[in-house]
Amino acid sequence: MAKTVSVNVPGRVNLIGEHTDYNGGMVLPAALSVSLQLSLTPRADREVIVRSAAYDQPVRRTIDDAPSNDWSDAALGAVREAITMGMLTSGAEISVSSTIPAGAGLSSSAALIVAVLKAAREASSADFSDTEIALAARRVENEYLGVPCGIMDQMAVAAASIGTAMALDTKTLQYRLLPLPTTHELIVLHSGISRQLSEGRYAVRKEECDTAKAYFGSDDLCLLDPNIIQRSDLAEPARSRALHCATEHARVLAAANALESGDMTRLGALMNASHASMRDLFDISLPPIDALVADGIALGALGARLTGGGFGGCIVALVENAAREAWLGQLLAKHPKAQFIDAAGG
Ligand code: GLA
Q: Which CATH number describes the domain made up of 184-345?
């Protein structure tokens, strides 16, 4: 009988470094305590049966199926990729239960795909590294699901560990795991506005970055000198998008240093500058999210910003431990649609 293997993969929140991961730059995501538990049993036939604790009925697919706009697409795409990589020979039976909220920008989809691939790796005793698993998971998103994402989410959920942030160079895929602060908490709040990368605005930003890449003759917008971008006659909005990438990359480098040296005031200031850049240069924020961030800062957070792809989802705020309860209470009273996500990486 085929062996059943179980894996657990965390969600992630990005502390700083947004839209840098397909522009040659740095990101600083952290693994969350919410996670996805998955078990997989290889099958000899072509069926892929996916059960979720969230639904009564299992979904029955075959490995030949195209995506059908169903939640099981991610698992099916991952099974197909595992077959291509030689980790599965045919179909699989998969059971999932997850505490990562879907549609919140906390990488529930990356976690599902990475979990299937890690389970298939274990079932086959293949020796792919976590980085190779992350790259395979990105192929599933880009090529099977048609989601034009970068590599941050897959790397974070495949290789970060709870209690650390991953200072990841998305160009070389080298990373360092940095301990999260113990004196302060990185609090995740859902804005109440859901988002999906597949809905198109993310792809538009990516195309605008492509225009800037063609103009500067470089794939690495993040590595350009911001002064050169500023002085260029590249037309808007591509110029502003490129300027965000180059300045955001510099902020991630500074934020990793601030985290390592325990300089929470500096880390907070960099988070605030990142939000302003996402709002004014990259144009991925929304007025209700700007208000949530501004009130979070006014109520005493050292820093706060939109996190993830944009146009909804979560904010992340840096708050001193002792101030946490009062801060949360006051902010949620002012923003009743926002929800606290009890998912701290610490
Ligand atoms: C989404 C994508 C990532 C990254 C972020 C923005 O989470 O999946 O690859 O581009 O948006 O930083």
A: 3.30.70.890
